[in-house]
Amino acid sequence: MVQKYKFGNPFRTDAVVREVALCEGEMPYMKKADGEKLSFSYHLEQEDEVYGLGENVRGINKRGWEYRSCCMDEPNHVEDKRSLYASHNFFVVRGKKCFGVFLDAPGIVTFDIGYTHLDEMRVTLEEPDAMVYVFEGDSVLEIVKEFRVLVGRSYIPPKWAFGYQQSRWSYMTEDEIYEVARMYRDNHFPLDSIYLDIDYMERYKDFTIDRERMPHFEEMVENLKKEHIRVVPIIDAGVKVEEGYSVYEEGVEKGYFCKDKEGKEFVVGVWPGQVHFPDVLNKDAREWFGNHYKFLIDKGVEGFWNDMNEPAIFYAQDRLDSTIDEIASLKGQNLDLSIFHKFMGKVMGLSNNTEDYKKFYHETESGRLSHDKVHNLFGYNMTRAAGEAFERICPDKRILMFSRSSYVGMHRYGGIWMGDNKSWWQHMLLNFKMQPSLNMMGILYTGGDIGGFGADTTEDLVIRWTQMALFAPLMRNHSALGTRVQEVYRFDNQDILRNILGIRYGLLPYLYSEFMKAALRDEMYYKPLAFEYTQDAYVSQVEDQLLAGDSVMTAPVFVQNAKGRYVYLPEEMAMVRMRSLDDYDTRRYPAGHHYIEAGLGETLLFVRRNKMLILSKGGEYTEEVKTDSMKALAFVEDKAVYEWYDDDGMGKDYSNPENIRKITISADGSCTCEGKPVNLEVEML
Ligand code: MIG
């Protein structure tokens, strides 16, 4: 059950797509607290667990820290940060009572969850306006589903976007891109796409192509597509200020950029130098910005990633100017420590300064609003601009889209990647833990940069990380300018990496089926064990294992030099230790704690009781993965039933009943199938 409460005069974010009647009177569970700011508190019992908040630092159970919804270009994902790129104001408390809360509030919101006081949760809003939804249910999963129904169906990417993807900041020229493709194809590493980072553009201008670096862009896109490799360009939030650049000139002419107090286009510095932000909170401007994606779609492009849309600000022009003046006045002076620190503070304070959010405006349906009031909606609406445009440009086709910044509601238009992680073992685990929290928000198509974005990676980290990402819907290796190169072919143990990617393509029918069912039914794809094994008192402490879809539990190795790991089984499960798609050993383990060996080239997965994992024979790209002859690894005590979803992977005929087949395997190993017949070799575990 959901109840809606209104505070002040909330802005219509369009996060929610269903009508809910407004409740009068006091909100249940969370008490409105005294104080200047709108704030709610809840007493946390010892046994209470708090889940949600999407893209964030720390664990799956969010108790024990203070988080802040304020979308930030934050490249240091360390424990004492309060904000990353997103604002995901939905959480569920489970314990003495079980309830969920979604604060539809686009300004800054702070979630003190046992930070100031161990036994208190306090949610504080910087702005007095909010629509608050309170959910009741018997379980976390039930509440998540109520929430998901409210915010609408998750974005569905094309099937090829579930293949392995290679990125780098940046592949600079056509030759470099062809070389990546050649290395993959010649060495038989599976691959479905190659990414273009900012350098494909002419001087970082959105919707342009640097013709010196990529004179035959269209031809390249076409040639690579023949090899089943898609080219996926980046789009940045800021539009370069440059005479003669049509996107800029049009935007100025039509008044589609964010303005300052005087009504002049607000100037900030990002990659291209001075830019304006398209006012994506304005419907007309959003439509206009979205239409530009056609420039690349017409060139054969079928996918995009939206970056810097928190929006990231290197500097606001006026702050830069005054800072330069102040610093100039220090010339020749003997800077003591305090002046020097002030000087440093000024310079450091240039980027992403929240004070600058007050200096520019959006023309919304509710009139003119300063950016700070709606800050967290920018990335969402940039991606919405694209998503709405795709519906106009190619309504019958799925286009890949994922964003860096997001707000609840954006999950209808695209996925996200987890931003600038580092090549650290702990970031692999952090990204793993984000998965279920993001799924709660409806963001199903997601993953972190495999191998780590910032800092130099190592071969064993890339191997373990690729294994960890085997079930991640977005499986992309990406790294930053200046760091050690990390394409799979750069390393000594090519067989290991080739085999891991081979396993991914074997898993594709299962992975796609589970993703699609989660999307179409408003459910989670990655689940913490605690959400499913609700009778197990210990299991909520297990955050380094997840259920990936309905049949499988995954338990990656996150520790440098580890040759195995402890795994907790809430029930008897069948372990599959995979070296490749055809080389694996299996063994049943009873419920409890087990140390299980997993050498560098070995991936552990577990098939749950009375469930099956369907496996294809793999392929080097998604279109090559055939489903006419598959294998089922089944752990059958009584019988295992699997609902297998499949479709053409490009169109939108999701509800066609032919997409679903129901496979049943009995204890004697016999197999039946409702729906189109399936050729399945059964292996009993
Ligand atoms: O300021 O486009 O998170 O994936 O490679 C850095 C360059 C801008 C940040 C993105 C990253 C991308 C990088 N971008």
Description of the molecule:
Helix 5 crosses helix 10. This protein is of the alpha+beta class. It starts with a strand and ends with a strand. The mean pLDDT is 97. The strands form ten sheets. The protein has a nine-stranded parallel β-sheet with strand order 25-24-22-18-14-13-12-27-26. A six-stranded antiparallel β-sheet has the order 28-29-30-35-32-33. A five-stranded antiparallel β-sheet has the order 1-11-8-7-4. The longest helix is centred in the C-terminal third of the chain and has 27 residues. 51% of the residues are buried. The structure holds ligand MIG. The site of ligand MIG has 11 residues, from loops.
Overall, the morphology is globular
State Rg: 25 Å
Q: How far is the N terminus from the C terminus?
A: 41 Å
Which hetero compounds are present in the coordinates? ligand MIG
Count of helix runs:
14
Q: Helix/strand-derived class?
A: alpha+beta
Please outline the major beta sheet.
Answer: 9 strands, parallel
DSSP strand (E) fraction?
25-35%
Catalogue the unreliable spans: none
Helix content: 10-25%
Let me know the average pLDDT: 97
Numbering strands along the chain, what is their spatial order in the largest sheet?
Answer: 25-24-22-18-14-13-12-27-26
Number of strands: 41
Keywords:
685 residues, alpha+beta, 9-stranded parallel beta sheet, 6-stranded antiparallel beta sheet, 14 helices, binds ligand MIG
